[in-house]
TrEMBL record:
GO terms for molecular function: 4-carboxymuconolactone decarboxylase activity; peroxiredoxin activity. Its EC number is 4.1.1.44. This is 4-carboxymuconolactone decarboxylase. Residues 34-119 form the Carboxymuconolactone decarboxylase-like domain.
Length: 135
């Protein structure tokens, strides 16, 4: 597989999911680890997110659940909560997904996830708009 194709495919997928938030993550790595930014585009977004087996909504649900369960990735969780909203996950679904993680990851992880969701929801211009922040 051509490396540039992986990068271009990954960049397009990142923009589809995260819009400007994804670009801000890449920009934040430019002065310290530009190669890592490329890896971040090529593997997760160019290879995994671009596979045909799951739609983007399902992928973002899985990512929100995983990041909530980790309990130590608040900034990434916020980006993916916004990404989930961008691809059609509702606020109600996000709250339920995060609450479900209390069963498997504990109440502290779920509480931290809910705090992240609350922060993202507060930044939304339109309460239940699906694509309000895509670029």
């Amino acid at each position: 597989m051509n490396i540039e194709n992986r990068y271009e495919r990954g960049l397009a997928k990142l923009r589809e999911i995260d819009g400007a938030a994804g670009q801000r993550v890449l920009d934040s790595l430019e002065d310290i680890a530009p190669d890592f930014a490329r890896y971040l585009i090529e593997f997760p977004f160019g290879d995994v997110y671009s596979r045909p087996g799951l739609d983007l909504k399902s992928r973002e649900i899985a990512v929100v659940a995983a990041l909530t369960a980790l309990g130590n990735a608040a900034s990434q969780l916020k980006v993916h909560i916004q990404g989930a909203l961008n691809v059609g996950v509702s606020r109600t679904e996000l709250v339920e997904i995060i609450m479900q993680m209390a069963v498997y990851a504990g109440f502290p992880a779920a509480l931290n996830g809910l705090a992240a969701a609350k922060e993202v929801f507060a930044q939304e211009r339109e309460p239940d708009s699906v694509l309000s922040h895509t670029a």
